[in-house]
Amino acid sequence: MTATAAKILANASKALKIGMMPADGIGREVLPVAQRVLSLTPGAPKFEFIPLPAGFELFTKTGVALPEETIRCLKEECDGAMFGSVSSPSHKVEGYSSPIVQLRKNLDLYANIRPVVGVRGTRDEDKWVDTVIVRENTECLYIKSETIEDTPNGKVAKAIRQISERASTRIGKKAFDVALARQEMRSRLGTAAAVGQAKVTVCHKANVLSTTDGLFRESVRAVKENDSISKGGAGRYHEVEMDEQIVDSMVYRLFREPEVFDVVVAPNLYGDILSDAAAALVGSLGLVSSVNAGDSFIMGEPVHGSAPNIAGQGIANPIASIRSGALMLEYMGYTEPALKIYRAVDHVLREGNVLTPDLGGKATTDDVEKAVLLALGA
């Protein structure tokens, strides 16, 4: 159990205060659905939802993408948070910095945990995927230290990539903890033998980037090795298998043999790309959830973007947001209501009668919400 979960469960009689940041585009359509599902889930705790401003659209109006008051409220008043989506431009905008990147830094949400899980009965069983990608959330190229200069041969742009032993070690520990938690859940459900041993795959490109990716690889591997040494060979992680994969071949194997991966731990950029690519294996980015986790705070966030091409049309898929809300609950220690939401979503997907256009259907956002609530018995 995380420190966050222990603290919250000790005050179980109080309503959970959840900061809600819809931000941009379809975030304003799907996050309210997640809020209503959380509120109506049988056995869920009581909630107090606090609307908070953030996003690129806010920046265009005020010059501020993430107000100080939003950060203060999250730190001082909230037990957790949900973020919708952000419309960060692909070109440089003076004074703008992505609010989701700022939130991860300000709240020290160093792990982005992204499950990519199929639903039995909806996909090819031979290419079954049940993987969690654990993405380091604070470093790599995302420190955004870039320069550009004019040279006799034209402009030259440079970006500093930061990989530290501290960040790599703690994301490694998080990955091993996630692997153990998944194995425990399988044991409870009686599926451990069918799925196999818990495993952490270290994803890197140390064959080329021997200094930065080399440090990441060595630091993560040392988590298990040092654990075994300190416990005389039978440490906490001794039953978790460990292997590694070069990032380009990782992408190839992910599409060819998704069933061989359990927990994948990667630097920031690789984890971002891998989890988005893996969404294709389950049908859509609109299905893939995540949480940004630190040692004292959890923030749910659907993996998809703001989708400006469909914003305002009422056809955005809310399932990633619903699952992210459930994932937030799970990491806060409320496993049973989270499981109810997962099962309700799986039921809707398995039935296949209420699917949004990204999944080949004609259902609206409201249709999916009603179907999930019906499956919940809410």
From TrEMBL:
InterPro entries reported for this sequence: IsoCit/isopropylmalate_DH_CS, IsoPropMal-DH-like_dom
GO BP of this protein: isocitrate metabolic process; lysine biosynthetic process; tricarboxylic acid cycle
Protein name as it appears in the record: Putative LYS12-homo-isocitrate dehydrogenase
PROSITE patterns from the UniProt entry: IDH_IMDH
UniProt-listed SUPFAM superfamilies: Isocitrate/Isopropylmalate dehydrogenase-like
Entry similarity comment: Belongs to the isocitrate and isopropylmalate dehydrogenases family.
Cellular component, GO annotation: mitochondrion
Pfam families in alphabetical order: Iso_dh
Domain Isopropylmalate dehydrogenase-like: 17-372
Gene Ontology MF terms: homoisocitrate dehydrogenase activity; isocitrate dehydrogenase (NAD+) activity; magnesium ion binding; NAD binding
Keywords: Magnesium
Entry superkingdom: Eukaryota
